[in-house]
Amino acid sequence: MRWEAQLVRPPAGPPEAGDADAVGAPLPLAGFGDVPAAGAAGALPLPGIVRSVRTPEFAGMTFHEVLAKSALNRVPEASNMPFRWTVNPYRGCSHACVYCFARKTHTYLDLDAGADFDSQVVVKLNVAEVLRAELRKPSWGRQHVALGTNTDPYQRAEGRYRLMPGILAALADSGTPFSILTKGTLLARDVDRLVAAAAEVPVSVALSIAMTNAELSAAVEPGTPSPEARFRLVERLAGRGIDCAVLAMPILPWLSDSDEALDALFARLARAGASSVTAGPLHLRPGAREWFMSWLAATQPELVERYRRLYRRGAVADPEYRTWLAGKVRHFRALHGLRSGGAAFRDAAGGDGPGPRAGSGAGPGAGSAAGPPPGAAPGQPALFDLLG
């Protein structure tokens, strides 16, 4: 959705007494310093901005506070997503994952898909209030709403802005089922709220954890909590009776797809009590592709040509690799007694059909430098092609 459709001009003054629909000016946030709203470096000079702020707590970042016209986003019917509605309280993400598909959406704001995506975060101050009003409409059919499908709702800024408690309450109070996908351990703050909501509506939670290697994680997703911190959150959720699925994506060719890496990942997920695991390879959509390949050239230059061959047809890896990885995923998932994510988290690694056994030399994880057959056709995107 384009930026202009999400913004309203801030009110010129405080709401009139008794005006239940008016949205007042935001409460000041202690420790935040105002950035001039127009013409200043780091400001976003667009209508609808309440203010742009910086704070030493988030060095190098600017938060652009806006008032949103709408909170519910309709997913096009042509999409292969298993849900039709989403809510995104933030645009941009301090997790700074070098592979994140959502990077291109920042160009809709006249910001770049690289450093700006990581450091220029849009905050929808009134999202919970707007959502509650939308859910009260007689036309609302209480369809499933997905959170975390674009940028992470539990990125670090959520600790300051606290938008999610209001969103969760609005959904539960209206009888609307919802799901959350996150890498943010800040979700632990809302465990009691999730337990309470689950008594009213269907609630599902999924964490994104695709590796155990803390050093690699710090390199490719530098703003996220460590893998071990996320494993501990799975344990905490399971201990409270909340089913926690895991999205083990993206698996990175030649970096996190070896037998040792996958065995360690699935073993740790089993110990943590994950209810299911969906795994699949890296996808490189425009915006993410350029940023990721720049990172690869700077840190792993010996892999650049391999990646160019593997993704020479577009965003998805060639079919031979995906088939090879699917076999690995099936093997290690079965070895550690884990189940697939089912309908909501279709296996983007290629389903559960026949595939090479673990330990075979069929793909890059076994050290092969050869690309797939030149005549192979590109595969169709699966559910989480669209997720970073």
Number of alpha- plus pi-helical segments: 11
Strand content: 5-15%
Shape: globular
Structural class: alpha/beta
Q: Low-confidence runs (pLDDT<50, min 5 residues)?
A: 1-43, 342-363, 365-388
Summed up:
By secondary structure, the protein is an alpha/beta fold. The chain contains eleven helices and twelve strands.
Looking at this protein, list some descriptive labels.
five-stranded mixed sheet; 12 strands; disordered N terminus; seven-stranded mixed sheet; alpha/beta; globular
Q: Explain this structure to me?
A:
- This protein is an alpha/beta fold and 388 residues long.
- Helices cover 27% and strands 14% of the residues.
- The chain is built from eleven helices and twelve strands.
- It has helices at 115-119, 127-135, 158-161, 164-173, 191-198, 214-220, 227-239, 259-272, 288-299, 304-310, 319-335; strands at residues 33-35, 49-54, 62-66, 72-74, 85-87, 90-91, 120-124, 145-147, 178-182, 203-208, 244-251, 276-281.
- The strands form two sheets. It has a seven-stranded mixed sheet.
- The longest helix has 17 residues, at 319-335.
- It is globular, with a radius of gyration of 21 Å.
- Residues 1-43, 342-363 and 365-388 have low confidence and may be disordered.
Set down the secondary structure blueprint.
Elements: E1 33-35, E2 49-54, E3 62-66, E4 72-74, E5 85-87, E6 90-91, H1 115-119, E7 120-124, H2 127-135, E8 145-147, H3 158-161, H4 164-173, E9 178-182, H5 191-198, E10 203-208, H6 214-220, H7 227-239, E11 244-251, H8 259-272, E12 276-281, H9 288-299, H10 304-310, H11 319-335
Parallel strand pairs: 3-7, 5-8, 8-9, 9-10, 10-11, 11-12
Antiparallel strand pairs: 1-2, 2-3, 4-5, 6-7
